[in-house]
């Protein structure tokens, strides 16, 4: 059974930092492209960042220079370090494991709220 479990979300002030994690089980983690997506209230889910099995990252323009995605294949975990957070970063953040269109999995999401 595949499980992606996100953790580390919470409330942070504008300009602050937060690191969220996603621990995977039931998949051969090292061969999957891992990603973070987010969905704000009333909006569609959008890409935040992905990282290939080889460790190449890709970022949405809105988070470039502020967010860093990384992975630890030994721990089956992907991270998203978020710095200089803005209120518009408020959303539920979802972890994604992607191998092919019909071989991808989602976590349950973790809430990130940026507010003073």
Gist of the model:
This protein has 116 residues and is mainly β. 0% of the residues lie in helices and 54% in strands.
Descriptive notes:
With 116 residues, the chain is an all-beta fold. The chain is 0% helix and 54% strand. It has strands at 3-7, 10-12, 18-25, 33-39, 46-51, 57-59, 67-72, 77-82, 91-100, 103-106, 110-114. The strands form two sheets. Strands 2, 4, 5, 6, 9, 10 and 11 form a seven-stranded mixed beta sheet that branches. The chain has a four-stranded antiparallel beta sheet with strand order 1-3-8-7, with no helix packed on it. A hairpin with a 4-residue loop joins strand 7 (67-72) and strand 8. The radius of gyration is 13 Å and the shape is globular. The N and C termini lie far apart (40 Å).
Backbone structural class: mainly beta
Helix and strand string, N-terminal first?
EEEEEEEEEEE
Looking at the structure, what is the overall shape?
globular
Rg of Cα set? 13 Å
Give the number of helices: 0
What share of residues is helical? under 10%
Compute the average pLDDT: 97
Q: Give a count of the beta strands, DSSP E runs of length 2 or more.
A: 11
How far the N terminus sits from the C terminus, by CA atoms, comes to 40 Å
């Amino acid at each position: 059974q595949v499980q992606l479990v996100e953790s580390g979300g919470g409330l942070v002030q504008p300009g602050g930092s937060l690191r969220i994690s996603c621990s995977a089980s039931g998949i051969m983690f090292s061969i999957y492209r891992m990603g973070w997506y987010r969905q704000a209230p009333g909006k569609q889910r959008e890409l935040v960042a992905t990282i290939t099995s080889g460790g190449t990252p890709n970022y949405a323009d809105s988070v470039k220079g502020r967010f860093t995605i990384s992975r630890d294949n030994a721990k089956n975990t992907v991270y998203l370090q978020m710095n200089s957070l803005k209120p518009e970063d408020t959303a539920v953040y979802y972890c994604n494991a992607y191998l092919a269109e019909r071989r991808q999995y989602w976590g349950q999401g973790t809430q990130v709220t940026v507010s003073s």
